[in-house]
Amino acid sequence: MSNNKRDYYEVLGLSKSASEQDIKKAYRALAKKYHPDVNKAADAEEKFKEINEAYEVLSDPQKKANYDQFGFAGVDGNAGGFSGFGNGFSSDDLNDIFGSFFGSGFGGFGGFGNRRSSRGYDGPSRGADRAMSMTIDFKESIFGCTKTINLDVDHVCEHCHGSGAESPSDIKTCPTCGGRGRVVRQTNTPFGMMQSETVCPTCGGKGKTIAHNCHVCHGAGYTRKHESVDLKIPAGIMSGQQLRVAGKGERGANGGDNGDLYIEINVREDKNFRRDGNDIYVEIPISALDATLGTRVEVPTVYGDVTMDIPSGTQPGQVLRLKGKGVKSIRNSAVGDQYVKVRVEVPTKLGREEKELYERLRDRANKKADNPFERFKRSFKA
Predict the structure, then answer these.
(1) Is residue 49 classed exposed, middle or buried when 0-12, 13-18 and 19+ CB atoms within 10 A define those classes?
(2) Residue 19: CB partners within 8 Å, gap ≥ 6?
(3) 239: which residues sit within 8 A by CB, 6+ positions away?
(4) Alpha-carbon Rg of the chain, whole angstroms?
(5) Residue 297 has what pLDDT?
(6) Nearest CA to 207 among 173, 183, 184?
(7) DSSP per residue over 75-108, as a string?
(8) Nearest-CA neighbor of 231 among 245, 251, 213, 248?
(9) Which of 124, 143, 248, 276 is deepest in the core (most CB within 10 A)?
(10) DSSP label at residue 251
(11) Span 308-346, pLDDT tens digits
(12) Would you say residue 355 has pLDDT above 90?
């Protein structure tokens, strides 16, 4: 690094405690002051490069940290010379800076002093997309359904086809801008006469004027209609997935197509079933005796009850599978499974006869040294 290089904070007139906003504010002010298009001093371009080099480093948290710790050595190779507009500013940012100072048409920054050409905006353009959400029930998401939605939709006027004119002969080239849609204005500034481009005030940027408005849409180019749209929701859809309804978004301009409508689906939770991907989970209670001896139960599924065998010796929390009783994939024909978690319920109250039976079972287990707790205790002595 050259020894005559100035400290970056000094270049921007800041202290090392300057915030991100302070750095940006200082850069904006100095960029306006020293840009070669407005400052004709011999050293303006060199100072402008120096300002941008300083900003390129100080606006980047990592580069700034390296510079604060190691000085120029920490950023050598990253800011050896001005090669663009730093991480916090693009050429569009600079256009905004100078546009706010000298007018919206100050020019672009492909290099110093370049100007962008502009043309009219009279061509058709597609409208913006819009979005809404819809909530459906759990089983509606499993099997699919059809929902009716009511919308106000703008359509291109059938009479004028979006031009807003009663007839094609009523469309004239704008006399103010000559069809460009923009006009050039000159402004006296302390730096001399500046030229800028703005949207034509006569045609609003369209480049054309209309002698007689369309009698149907009264010059708007579109008509609004209230519509009912049947939305087919496919089986297997999940919360967060979107459906597209073509042409039901915001209206286009100058006869352009409408945007699309995107509907995000939200699925209500079910009090019994839980979905994970294409699998469904449910929890069922059984008695301790049924878990011990095994049994057969009718398990609820989204398709109706299904007979399932509970094997003897089933443990609390054990999960059993019902193949093919999950959800059909929205993308292919694959079907998930249903997983059944067993909750073993221990009785809190026993009748005299039941208590006697349980005590007899316990005595029998103790005689066989089959008490689980005793087996646990013996493991500590092994």
Answers:
(1) middle
(2) none
(3) 141, 265, 266, 267
(4) 37
(5) 96
(6) 173
(7) TTTTSSS--S--TT--HHHHHHHHHHHH-TTS--
(8) 245
(9) 248
(10) P
(11) 999 999 999 999 999 999 999 988 889 999 999 999 998
(12) no
* Per-residue CA distances from 274 to 279, 282, 299, 301, 303 (Å): 8, 7, 15, 11, 14
User: What was the pLDDT predicted at 348?
Assistant: 86
Tokens of 109: 């920054």
**Nearest to 328, CA basis, from 222, 212, 237:** 237
Q: Which two tokens stand for residue 164?
A: 């807003």
Residues forming a β-bridge with 306: 299
CA torsion angle 151 156 158 160 (round to 10): 150
Paired residues of 102 in beta bridges: none
| pLDDT band, residue 3 (cuts 50/70/90) | low
In angstroms, the CA 96 to CA 89 distance is: 10
Look at residues 370, 341, 371, 347 and name the one whose alpha carbon lies nearest to residue 289: 347
8 SS3 class: helix
For 198, residues 6+ apart whose C-beta sits below 8 A from its C-beta are 103, 104, 105, 182, 183, 185
217 Cβ contact list (under 8 Å, min separation 6): 157, 159, 160, 164, 223
Report which DSSP code applies to 324. Answer: T
Token couple for 277: 């991907």
H-helix segments, the chain: 8-12, 20-34, 44-58, 61-70, 91-102, 138-143, 288-293, 352-367, 372-381
Task: Record the pTM.
Answer: 0.57
Other CB atoms closer than 10 Å to residue 374's CB: what's the count?
Answer: 12
Higher pLDDT, residue 107 or 20: 20
pLDDT of residue 122: 52
Q: Apex CA 16: angle with CA 12 and CA 21, to 5°?
A: 65
CA–CA dist 142, 239 (Å, integer): 11
Is 56 buried (19+), middle (13-18) or exposed (0-12) by CB count in 10 A?
buried
Two tokens at 356?
Answer: 């006697």
- Rounded to whole angstroms, the Cα distance separating 292 from 314 reads 6
